[in-house]
Structure formats: C-alpha cells, structure tokens
Amino acid sequence: MIITDNHMHIYKHLKLKALEQFKQAGGTHVLLVSLLAHHYDVFPKSGKDFVKVFEEHLNVVRKANKIVKAYAVLGVHPAEITVLGSRLGFERAAEIMKEALTIAGEYVAKGEAIALKSGRPHYRVDAHVWRLSNEVMKHAFELAKEIGCAIQIHTESYNYDMGVEIAKIADEVGLRRDKVVKHFSPPKVKEFEEIGIFPSVLAGDDKVLTAAKEGDRFVLETDYIDDPKRPGAVLGPKTVPKKVKELVEHGFGEDFIYKICKENIEKLYGVEL
Ligand SMILES: [Zn+2]
C-alpha cells in the first residue's frame, strides 16, 4: 500500500530516524518542506542567500530517499517577513522573499523540487506587513502559474471566507485553484471542493475519518517539525500511516487509500509514485 505524508520537516531532533519510524509504521512516500532560513544558520541579506537553504534541504531529501521515496518542496516561510523585517525593514524583507521564491521556482522548473511553498503569517501583523505578505504570496502564485507547479500555502487558520479570498488571488494571476494546497487544513473536504483549493488535512484525532466521510479529494500530513524543543509536534512521523490503517479498519477500501495517497498526489504535483 502507498501511504504518503504531504508535509513533513526534517530538522534536528530525530532527523532521518523520523523517516525510519514513518517507514516502519507503513509510510512509503513523503514531501519534505524547507524551513525558515535560521534553521540552517543562514541569516539572509539577499534572495540569493536562500540558495544555501535550498541546497541544504535538497541534500536532506537526497539522504531521505535512501529510506522512503522523498520529494522536496522549496519555498519561503511566511514568518520570514517578521524575522527578516525586524533586521532589514519590512519592504526589503518582502523583496528578499520574492527573490528567494524566484530561485526556488528555478529548482522546481529543473525538477529538483516538486512544488513551491509560500503563504502569509498565521499570527496577527499590522496592515503594512499584511499587505506586503499578500504581495509575496501573489508573486509565488505567479511563479507557480508560470512553472505549472503546485504551491503549498501556510496561512492563518482556515475558514470559508479566507479560502475564497485565497482562491481569488490565484484567479487574479491565472493559477488554477486546485494547484493551491492549503497546508494544515481542517477536514472540510466538501467545502474545499466547492471553493476549489486543495486541502492537506492535518491527520490528528479523528480528522482523517471525518475527512474520509466527506469524500476523497484531500491529502494527509503531520507537519512533523522535528524540533527538539517540541518533540512529536505538530504530529509524530507515524501518524499518517496509523490513521490510514484506521481508515481501512473502518471499511474504507484500498481504492480509497490509493486515491488519497497516490492519485491525488500525482495529480497535484505531476509526479508518478
Ligand atoms: Zn510545516
């Protein structure tokens, strides 16, 4: 059985052991997402400084591929606006983020990564920073449109109105709504289908079962962050395989699992699992 985690990080806690655990639990495929620059001891002054971040991440993904099939997602975490902005000013931070996203897009175009990541802060920021963040995200949407790739977005908590707002930003640049993957989604499968953006459902509690009862248009993630200060956060690396097996126990067949863990991933990212 193919079991895919759509959003995980490897950083400095369990490191590749997290993927050993994922594999032991039945996991086969994973999308590994790059973190904030400071996680790689990079303190960028320009977009180009993110090359080191991306190269290091790609290196981790290469090692990960010895354990399971791993794909790279490259991008700029939306919280960089605060981190970089406090040091360099927010306008400059936004410029750097856009430059870095353009570089990330080049890796995707070359086939070294399968998707971009962007978004906007999940915490309150002032109107100026909010506007800049939306500009950065829109730039990332433009890149995704040009390259023809999917984009994972990290944003404030989902609600219907924000979902529609994000979808409209995609429309403005001609990016297909179903190429926008909302990371950290609640299991509102029908609502996402109506709006058109694609949910990556956080696999905790009974959310996988709740999602499955609404349909099969979703993927699953743990957002495992591999941080020694928050071990097991957001969810542990075994969670997706465990929850997928629970689905089977609840009567969801192999076809259903195939759809969420293989076909949906293939369609979103243009890969063959
Ligand atoms: Zn994450």
Key features?
273 residues; alpha/beta; TIM Barrel; 8-stranded parallel beta sheet; binds zinc ion
Instruction: Specify Rg, calculated over alpha carbons.
Output: 17 Å
Q: What is the CATH architecture descriptor? A: Alpha-Beta Barrel
Structural class: alpha/beta
Instruction: Give the biggest beta sheet.
Output: 8 strands, parallel
Count of discrete alpha- or pi-helical segments spanning 4 or more residues? 10
Spell out the CATH superfamily.
Metal-dependent hydrolases
Q: Biggest sheet: strands side by side, in what order? A: 1-2-3-4-5-6-7-8
Classify the helix fraction into a percent range. 40-55%
What report would you give on this structure?
With 273 residues, the protein is of the alpha/beta class. It has a single domain (4-269), classed as Metal-dependent hydrolases (TIM Barrel, Alpha-Beta Barrel). 48% of the residues lie in helices and 15% in strands. The chain has an eight-stranded parallel sheet with strand order 1-2-3-4-5-6-7-8. Strand 6, helix 7 and strand 7 (198-202) form a beta-alpha-beta unit. Helix 3 crosses helix 4 (90-110) and helix 4 runs parallel beside helix 5. The longest helix has 21 residues, at 90-110. The N and C termini lie close together (11 Å). The model has no long low-confidence stretch (mean pLDDT 98). Zinc ion (ZN) is lined by residues 7, 9, 33, 223.
